[in-house]
Each structure stands twice: as C-alpha cells, then as structure tokens.
C-alpha cells in the first residue's frame, strides 16, 4: 500500500475494485465502513458480484469479467474531457500524459459500456465523484491482478491516481491488499526470481558484489530465476528435476490442476516444508515439519509495509522447527556454514544488506512496527509513499489498450466463472478446515448462482450440480443468492475434494506470470 490502513479513514472517496473486502480483509473493511458511516466518505465499488461492500457504496459499477482496463480508461476519458484532472500535479511530477490522453480518447462512456456492461451514465457519475474529491483512495486485490492483463490493470489504476494527483497525499494512494499473511514480507525478502531483498536486482553487478561481500562468498548468479508458473511446465517437460516447496499447497491452489498434477508427478524429487500434511505434502518424497507463526520469533511485514514483531507463544510439536533453522541445517549439509544465533541475528543481516530495511532493529519495533522504507537508525519510517516526488523522478503514465480475457463464453460453455474466498476459510484450508466451528459455517464447496441463471439451467438451491470447463469438472452444491449476478457464477477455492482450480485457465499475464484465475467459461449439469 502507498498509504496506511488507518489513512483510509481520511479519504473523501474510496474506490474499491477486485476486492471482496468484508470477507477477505474484514479488519480493513471495518476502517472503510467507519469512514462511510461516520466520516461521510463516498464509496465506489467496481465488482462483478453484489458483494457486501456494495451495500455501503453510493456507486456500484458491475463490470463484465476481465474488462478492467476498459472501465479505468473510461473514467480517465471522462476526467480529461471534463478537465477534472490535476494539471499542476501532472506537469510537475509526471511524464507521458499526452500518450495517455491519446489512448483513452476512444474510451467514451458508450464504448466502455459496450465492452464492460457498465451503463455510460454510471461511469460518468463515478468519474466525477472520484476526480472531484480532495483525497481519493484506490483499494484493490486479486480481482485486479489475477488476469492475463493483471499488470496492465495495476498500471491503469496508477494512471488514474496520478491523473487526479492522488499519490503522496493523506487519504489517497493506490493500496493493494495482500492476499496472505506476510506476502509483503516474503516479496521484500527476495521471494521473487529477479531480486535480492529490498527489490535489488540480481542482474546488477554492484548488488552482486555487495551480497558476496556480506555473505563471504563468490560467484553468486546474476541470472533471473523461474516464476512459479514457469516451474510446473518445465517439470512436465523434464527440464526441472526437483522442487522444494515451503508453505504452499499448489495441488489445490494452482490453476489448471490436472496440468499441475502431471508436472509434480514428473519430478524426480519433491520436498515439502509445511505445518500440516497438505495435499502437496502427501505427494512429496521428503516432508520437513515446520513451526507455525505462534511457535517462533521473527517479523511480519504487513500489507501497509509495517514491519512488526512476532513472538513465540508456545513450543512447536514433535520435530517441527523454525523455517530459518531448517534452511541453515540444509545449507550446512551442503557445505555452506550458515550460522545464526536466532531470528534477531538474521534481522540484523537483513538491515545490513537491504537499504529499505536499514533502520529496522528489534529494539525499534519492540512495541510498534515501522513502515519501510526506513533506511537509517534515526529514520521514523515512511507511512505514506511518494510525498513530494517519486523514487524514479517523474511518474510514468502508461498508455494501455484493452485486451480481452483469454477465454470467452460460447454455446457449449455459456457462463463465466470467477473464483475467490469466503470469510470462514483461508486459502487451501490447511488450517481453517481443521477448525470444527469454521467447518460448521461452511462445510462444503458451493457454486453461487443467480436466481435467473438457476431457473434457466433448472437448478434449485441445495442441488448438487456438476460444473465443467474446457479443462475439467467438479461437483458442488448450488447456492442461489442475490450476491451472484446473471451470467457469472462464483466458486471458492478452499476445498481440495472439489477443487475449483480443476476448471480455471492456466493462461498467464505475460509480465507477472500470474494465472487468469478470475475468468473462465463453464457449463452446468445435474450431478451424475
């Protein structure tokens, strides 16, 4: 997030898109609801489903799946045509405006309505509201990123914020909500194929030399590694022979699961490190039991970039060990003497080699976390990014055209499917589905369908039905409800025995490599 969670209550207008906030981020949603109820904040929700947050919104724009670039460009078209853009901000802090202006010229409200299904007047009203606010915040999540145009979607939202001068200001910004605990921290620590910690590129000779000096080694590779969505195809081709998976359950969470199963089966060696015997762990040659969050010391970096202490509350069961300890023991057996006394010693090294974490120590975050960048021991942290200037100098506008999703409906597959989560379960259910109380709330998988579509397909609430795509089929219980909008069904991905990712497409964003989880074509039939 460019801004803080608490800062959302300072916004005059909040635009939420691609985020079922009340179910996926209930704590953050409470800040937004308070802002609406008590502060007079206006809420715009752009979502293909009638999610709970739409009941707090003054404007709900229901877009067709996979059309986000089109409606964002449409908002910018209206803002520029009506001269609602922040000319001073654009002139002093950005570049590429003329190219953006030329691109969005064709995205008239009427043209956008043809693509997205959003009525032209609704688009105009939302554009005027967002651009007319003194401080307007954008909040988004994986409903924006999990498309073949996910990178373009994010860039487009950044365009919209810059166009209206909503970066570097309290109550503004572009605020991605992270999908899992410490995803931000994992990325910060180099859990990506192209960077060391703090997003320092592995291709930089200067960074390589710094890391070699800090670690007392030579010959660090400057080659960019594989994205996770590149690993499975290479395993299937026989090019990737071994895989070491930590805290992830791809045999439930990855797209086009039939393809993933074949790739995993083709490995010579699979190691899984996790807290429970997941579906992926059961396929492993070696399982390494690791400690959960409450059984170890360390830090989490949350969605607002706040680095916070985590303290051990209970001992680990059996042979479970801290992840860092397991890593060091493997390294020692491979001839590299990784020797750390504890998690605090690792944090000291992180601060040494990571400029954005340079001022972070356990003492400084003992009671309250700090936001990175925090480069020095006397730096107060940075709650709001991009005040005054951008790190690269001027911010880049990106002129982006609309690209349709990889798959569309037809006579055989007449409905769109989108996937997501429910409030009572988390990710692949590794933890939550072991909780009796949560299983009572949502005991089995379901397909959310509108009453209109249910009638058209002869489906009644509570029926067990078969959902098929071009890649596979599953069975789930029909849930006829007002949340669903005609033409689109929704299925959560928590249930391994009825894994929706048997259906989803493995089409990838060309930049990030993320699969298009949020759009695929399906058909319904009575369960056999």
Annotation, overall tally of beta strands: 21
Radius of gyration, in angstroms, nearest whole number: 24 Å
CATH homologous superfamily heading of the largest domain: Dimethylsulfoxide Reductase, domain 2
Strand percent estimate: 15-25%
For the largest sheet, list the strands in their spatial order: 17-19-18-21-16-20
- CATH topology-level name of the largest domain: Dimethylsulfoxide Reductase, domain 2
**Domains counted in the coordinates: how many?**
3
Write up what this structure looks like.
The protein is of the alpha/beta class and 528 residues long. The chain has 3 domains: 6-177, Dimethylsulfoxide Reductase, domain 2 (3-Layer(aba) Sandwich); 179-221 and 295-313 and 335-377, 3-Layer(aba) Sandwich (Rossmann fold), CATH 3.40.50.740; 415-526, Barwin-like endoglucanases (Beta Barrel). The chain has 18 helices and 21 strands. It has a 6-stranded mixed sheet with strand order 17-19-18-21-16-20. A hairpin with a 3-residue loop joins strand 7 and strand 8 (200-201). Helix 3 (68-81) packs across helix 7 (120-132), helix 3 packs parallel to helix 9 and helix 12 crosses helix 14.
Provide the fold topology.
Elements: E1 13-17, H1 21-24, H2 26-39, E2 42-46, E3 59-61, H3 68-81, H4 87-93, E4 94-95, H5 97-104, H6 109-116, H7 120-132, E5 136-140, H8 142-145, H9 150-163, E6 174-176, H10 183-188, E7 195-196, E8 200-201, H11 205-215, H12 228-237, E9 242-246, H13 250-253, H14 257-265, E10 269-274, E11 286-289, E12 298-301, E13 306-310, H15 323-333, H16 343-353, E14 370-371, E15 395-396, E16 415-420, H17 436-441, E17 446-449, H18 451-456, E18 464-468, E19 473-480, E20 488-492, E21 520-526
Parallel strand pairs: 1-2, 1-5, 2-3, 4-15, 5-6, 9-10, 10-11, 16-20, 17-19
Antiparallel strand pairs: 7-8, 12-13, 13-14, 16-21, 18-19, 18-21
Helix pairs in contact: 3-6, 3-7, 3-9, 6-7, 12-14
């Amino acid at each position: 997030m460019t801004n803080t969670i608490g800062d959302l209550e300072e916004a005059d207008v909040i635009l939420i898109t691609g985020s079922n906030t009340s179910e996926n981020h209930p704590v953050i949603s409470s800040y937004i609801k308070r802002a609406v109820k008590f502060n007079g904040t206006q809420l715009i929700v752009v979502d293909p489903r009638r999610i709970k947050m739409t009941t707090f919104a003054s404007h709900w724009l229901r877009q067709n799946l996979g059309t986000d670039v089109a409606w964002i460009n449409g908002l910018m078209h209206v803002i520029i045509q009506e001269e609602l853009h922040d000319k001073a901000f654009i002139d002093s802090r950005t570049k590429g405006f003329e190219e953006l202006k030329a691109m969005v010229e064709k995205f008239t409200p009427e043209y956008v309505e043809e693509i997205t299904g959003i009525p032209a007047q609704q688009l105009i009203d939302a554009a005027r509201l967002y651009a007319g606010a003194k401080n307007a915040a954008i909040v988004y999540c994986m409903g924006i990123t999990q498309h073949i145009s996910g990178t373009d979607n994010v860039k487009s939202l950044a365009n919209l914020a810059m166009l209206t001068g909503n970066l570097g200001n309290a109550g503004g910004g572009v605020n991605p909500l992270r999908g899992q605990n410490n995803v931000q921290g994992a990325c910060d620590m180099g859990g990506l194929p192209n960077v060391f910690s703090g997003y320092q590129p592995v291709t930089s000779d200067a960074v390589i030399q710094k890391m070699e000096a800090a670690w007392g080694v030579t010959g660090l590779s400057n080659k960019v590694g594989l994205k996770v969505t590149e690993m499975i195809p290479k395993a299937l081709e026989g090019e990737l022979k071994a895989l070491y998976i930590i805290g992830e359950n791809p045999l439930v969470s990855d797209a086009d699961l039939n393809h993933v199963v074949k790739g995993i089966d083709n490995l010579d060696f699979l190691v899984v490190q996790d807290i429970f015997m997941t579906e992926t762990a059961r396929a492993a040659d070696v399982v390494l039991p690791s400690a959960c969050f409450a059984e170890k010391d360390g830090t989490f970096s949350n969605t607002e970039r706040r680095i916070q202490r985590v303290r051990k509350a209970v001992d680990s069961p059996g042979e479970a060990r801290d992840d860092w300890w397991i890593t060091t023991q493997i390294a020692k057996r491979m001839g590299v003497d990784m020797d750390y006394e504890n998690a605090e010693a690792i944090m000291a090294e992180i601060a040494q080699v990571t400029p954005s974490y340079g001022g972070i120590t356990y003492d400084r975050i003992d009671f309250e976390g700090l936001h990175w960048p925090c480069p020095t021991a006397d730096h107060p942290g940075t709650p709001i990014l991009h005040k005054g200037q951008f790190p690269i100098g001027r911010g880049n506008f990106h002129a982006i055209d609309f690209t349709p999703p990889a798959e569309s409906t037809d006579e055989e597959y007449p409905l769109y499917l989108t996937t997501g989560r429910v409030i009572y379960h988390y990710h692949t259910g590794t933890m939550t589905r072991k909780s009796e109380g949560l299983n009572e709330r949502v005991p089995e998988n379901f397909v959310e369908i509108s009453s209109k579509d249910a009638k058209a397909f002869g489906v009644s609430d509570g029926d067990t039905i078969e959902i098929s795509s071009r890649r596979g089929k599953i069975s789930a219980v029909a849930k006829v409800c007002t949340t669903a909008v005609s033409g689109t069904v929704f299925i959560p991905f928590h249930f391994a025995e009825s894994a929706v990712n048997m259906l989803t497409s493995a089409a990838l964003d060309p930049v990030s490599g993320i699969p298009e989880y949020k759009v695929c074509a399906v058909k319904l039939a009575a369960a056999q």
